[in-house]
Design brief:
heterodimer; A: 259 residues; mainly alpha; B: mainly alpha; 14 helices
């Protein structure tokens, strides 16, 4: 476990030194504040559109923060040949994958904390209401989603040829699932066989990332999901994270280390 | 060797000179490309797609996020489509009062539910479980909350200034949230972009009649709307008869209030041409004819 934590802390330090998060945070804050400063029909209390824009920017930023660094972790180690001394410590390949995952996930969590804190302040000042539990649970579910995405990206980094390919493919898959994942079964119902069965199979196999997106509940000030559902979503996320990490290890353990 | 400060100074002077030259150019961007100005230049015709998206977004806000996606619409020929409709006073919730329309009353929500055809049914465990994390309760925005949909309508109008319905819907909600002055300003913006539109003139007339209680101005605007309706709509294969009925009956209302019963009857007859089955109009005409035949009743209608 100590080895995993040590690798994770190295990853965290590397991500901390890079300026990705700062740039994205400043952009998110700037665009949100600009949008909030627009006066529509002389009414300064209109809040929902600011919340919507801010949350959209937070989601885009978080995906960039999670996918980018996770995609380059293993390829960079191989390219720089630092993977040889690392594995000679001795560190097993499973520990390395787990360490990389924990590092990326924890840093993404801190980034989310800052972003949601900003969202909370903007939303609270605008609406004069502070539903802290809502903000916290939205951030928690978002963090679970990022866990799945980071694990998926690590699998991509040992399967796909280059970090840029992995980055692009993962983002397309994640955005695709977020937009159409929940509707695939309806689409399958309208298709002829075997197309219908194929789409239905995809529907049951993909991780349903849309469950972790409760932006609408925040925007429209709706009640939170029941605790049982939150627990179920957490277990679901844990299973998918384990699946992607295990698959990454299966591929990585037999992979030649020289680039 | 040139000192760096000189180079910086030279660059600054160049930038300043260029800025003075380009400023007049950027001013012309607003008026270039005819209509739509800068937006049209940047987005071209694509801006109309975005405009439509933002109008739908406003309706989505009105329904508090409870809204069908394109995947929830049934395939063609499979019964009635779940209807996506922007709420304004021109939509056909006939039996609703203004207070009910748009308010989160059980009746209006149920009416919407009936219209949309119950799209929100989960067919499998994934969809059932997923419904915990999205809006599944159908409510409408009420009171001051209704202002929340206005930004999207404003953006939509910026993107497509020729979408008349956007101005009408925004005006309706502005008036509902006690912003009649803003409604008038917005309708006038619409008229700037669409100078000949009779619906916008009619809406402006309504603002003067119902909010400002300015009968004279309202009457002139309704008459202008009627003239434009005759010029634009009467020759069409499918003219907007609902609009004609609205303009004519509002004109009749103004004339009746001013004591001009004969004119009021003639306007109601015009409205009846647009809506021949209307029993209410027929009854109204009969009542006015009765008043016309008894002069004492007519005199009492003249405002003092």
């Amino acid at each position: 476990m100590n080895i995993v934590i040590a690798i994770a802390s190295v990853v965290a330090k590397e991500m901390y030194r890079r300026k990705d998060f700062y740039v994205l945070f400043v952009l998110t804050a700037l665009i949100t504040l600009l949008a909030g400063s627009v006066n529509f029909f002389g009414d300064a209390k209109i809040a929902m559109y600011v919340k919507e824009i801010c949350l959209l920017l937070i989601w885009v930023s978080s995906l960039v923060i999670a996918v980018g660094p996770a995609a380059r972790q293993i390829p960079a180690e191989r390219e720089n040949r630092t993977i040889f001394p690392l594995l000679a410590k001795p560190v097993t390949r499973a520990q390395m994958i787990l360490g990389k995952f924990v590092g990326c996930w924890v840093v993404a969590g801190f980034a989310l904390l800052v972003l949601y804190l900003f969202f909370g302040v903007v939303s609270g000042l605008r609406e004069q209401a502070w539903p802290v539990a809502h903000f916290f649970l939205a951030a928690l579910l978002h963090w679970l989603l990022l866990g799945i995405v980071i694990a998926m990206t690590l699998l991509g980094s040992v399967v796909l040829s280059a970090p840029s390919v992995n980055w692009t493919v993962t983002l397309i898959v994640v955005i695709g699932i977020l937009f159409v994942g929940e509707h695939l079964n309806k689409v399958a119902g309208r298709l002829h066989e075997p197309g219908g069965s194929m789409v239905r199979t995809v529907y049951y196999l993909i991780p349903h990332l849309e469950w972790f997106d409760i932006r609408d509940l925040l925007i429209y000030n709706k009640p939170l999901p029941p605790l049982l559902a939150l627990g179920g979503a957490t277990v679901y996320a844990a299973i998918y994270m384990a699946f992607f990490l295990y698959a990454s290890w299966l591929v990585f353990r037999r992979k030649p280390l020289s680039a | 060797m040139v000192r760096p400060t000189y180079i910086l100074g030279l660059l600054l002077a160049l930038a300043f000179t260029l800025a003075t030259g380009l400023q007049s150019e950027t001013r012309s961007w607003r008026t270039r490309s005819g209509e739509g100005g800068l937006m049209a230049m940047l987005f071209g015709d694509g801006r109309r797609l975005f405009a439509n998206h933002f109008t739908v977004k406003a309706d989505q806000y009105f329904h508090s996020g409870y809204y069908p996606s394109i995947f929830d619409q049934r395939p063609e020929g499979d019964g009635e489509q779940p209807e996506v409709h922007v709420h304004d006073e021109h939509c056909d919730h006939e039996n609703e009062t203004d207070a009910e329309h748009g308010g989160a009353t059980e009746h209006s929500v149920e009416a919407c539910e009936e219209k949309s055809g119950g799209w929100n049914t989960a067919s499998d465990w994934i969809a059932k479980f997923g419904s915990n994390f999205r809006v599944t309760e159908h409510t409408h925005l009420t009171g001051k909350q209704q202002r929340e949909l206005l930004p999207w309508l404003k953006i939509s109008a910026e993107l497509d200034p020729h979408q008349i319905n956007t101005y009408l819907v925004a005006s309706y909600w502005l008036r509902k949230t006690d912003k009649s002055a803003e409604a008038e300003k917005f309708i006038r913006e619409g008229l700037e972009a669409n100078p000949q539109d009779c619906e916008l003139v009619f809406e402006l007339g309504q603002i003067y009649l119902l909010d400002r209680k300015n009968l004279e101005r309202a009457q002139r605007l309704f008459e202008l709307a009627l003239t434009r309706w005759d010029a634009q709509e009467s020759a069409k294969e499918k003219p907007n008869l609902i609009l004609l009925a609205n303009i004519a009956s509002n004109l009749a209302r103004v004339e009746e209030t001013k004591g001009q019963i004969a004119s009021a009857i003639s306007h109601l007859e015009r409205a009846r041409q647009a809506s021949p089955q209307s029993a209410a109009l027929a009854k109204q005409i009969e009542e006015l004819k009765l008043k016309l035949s008894s002069p004492s009743a007519t005199n009492s209608l003249v405002p003092h």
